Structure formats: C-alpha cells, structure tokens
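go over this:
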Amino acid sequence: MNAEKIGVTSISSPTPCEALTKRYPTINASELTK
C-alpha cells in the first residue's frame, strides 16, 4: 500500500501497516504487507 494513500497516519506510527491496523482493526496486518 502506498504511503501517500495512508497520509498523516503513517507519520504518527512506526510503520504504515501498524497505523492502518490501528485505524482499521478488521484488516489483517498480513494483508497490508502484501
């Protein structure tokens, strides 16, 4: 997934993947890393 699509969320967290799992808990982290 593109960091530009994630936006500010990627800045406030160690990794964009971690930021997304916090915002969307229903999304599996392994799916984001593909």
Remarks:
- The two ends are 8 Å apart (CA to CA).
